[in-house]
Amino acid sequence: MSHKVPGTRWYRIIVPILIACIISFMDRVNISFALPGGMDQDLGITSQMAGVVSGIFFIGYLFLQIPGGRIAVHGSGKKFIAGSLTAWAIISIATGFVVHEYQLLILRFLLGIAEGGMLPVVLTMVSNWFPEKELGRANAVVMMFAPLGGIFTAPVSGAIISALDWRWLFFIEGILSALVMMLWWALISDRPEEARWLPQSEREYLLTQLKTEREAREAKVEVSNAPLRDVFKNRGLVTLIFLNFFYQTGDYGYTLWLPAILKNLTGGNMADVGGLAILPFVGMLAGIYVISLLSDRSGKRRLWVCISLLCFAASLVASVILRHHVVAAYIALVICGVFLKAATSPFWSIPGRIASAETAGAARGVINGLGNLGGFCGPYLVGVMINFYGHNVAIYALSISLLIAAILSMTLPKQCDIQTDEEAESSSGKEMAASNR
């Protein structure tokens, strides 16, 4: 992007999206602090049931994935997310009043439904605002919602539980959702042509650049009126679904059990655990930024997805091997955090490379929805493994899942990668040489 073109969209679009995503992450993972913070004892929840409670969110998460992607393409993502934030607020406050584990299961399932369309909606909104050469970084900033949410959630959750109790954790975060909904409605716009606040030079740049890229994609990819069917006809998109399933199994198996793993490792109270849980999320920020930068500069989307997943798996294994050395094991868990979400930026830049805009919108919902079944399997797998075999075997199982995801990443089609300027010149030179012969 030329330096003469304003970057208003970076703070008027990305900042509200990032804040809304942070709230969604907080509502999603606060259960991981509430359970070891007294909820398990108050409601009589076993480790196996804790896995179900943590994971059932992702069953509900399936329902609005595809509708969310379509709404963002053809309708208003702004209205969709505003409604979602309102639902999150109501469900979170209601969770603070539960007295039985089955009430908790129902509310976690409903929260999954309420959050289900968020990621395909916001990713499609980002693609409406950012050209290809900026898209990796824009996605990376949005994906920082997880580490930023973790950095905020970990100490605050630990402090609230220690000072008050786990019920107040849900009350306070429900109120936050309501406040963010008002901020979202005041700031966000769905598309450049709808934003009155957008400087004219930036509007012209975006409309021209995005139209050129869309036409170039559609010239290469056949456009269809049945995008959902096209998702399953596209080998690359199907691979992304399976890859995301195994990735999310490892991701949420680690994220939702991290407070319990840290408590088991150190024997500290919830305030101490909340403090220790900050560093993995700080590392996550660095990992997302560095990998997105390397991915954008090299254009090697598949390679950086694979490297991130392999490093995540290796760090999990190291945390078990070093378990008798508490500081070393903790450092390994922090390194896990560095690579936990690092693959997400190159990963979510891929659907638009291998499908039309319409199909890619549906694909983001399918990939996120079916892939996030791993969000149920991961926590449940850890709960079952802990119950029968202990923490160490559970962590090894998550590592195997990440290894499978890494292998799948290298089977993706070559068109997932972006040709750099040097490669384009080299390719053009070879074509000219061949024609001269």
From TrEMBL:
Species of provenance: Rosenbergiella australiborealis
Ranges annotated as spanning the membrane: 9-26, 46-68, 80-99, 105-126, 138-162, 168-188, 237-261, 273-291, 303-322, 328-348, 369-388, 394-412
Keyword set includes Transmembrane helix: yes
Principal location: membrane
Keyword Transmembrane set for record: yes
Keywords, sorted A to Z: Membrane, Transmembrane, Transmembrane helix, Transport
PANTHER family with a match to the protein in the record: PERMEASE-RELATED, SUGAR TRANSPORTER
Gene3D superfamilies assigned: MFS general substrate transporter like domains
Membrane topology: Multi-pass membrane protein
Localization in the cell: Membrane
Protein name: MFS transporter
Domain (Major facilitator superfamily (MFS) profile) ranges: 13-417
Source organism superkingdom: Bacteria
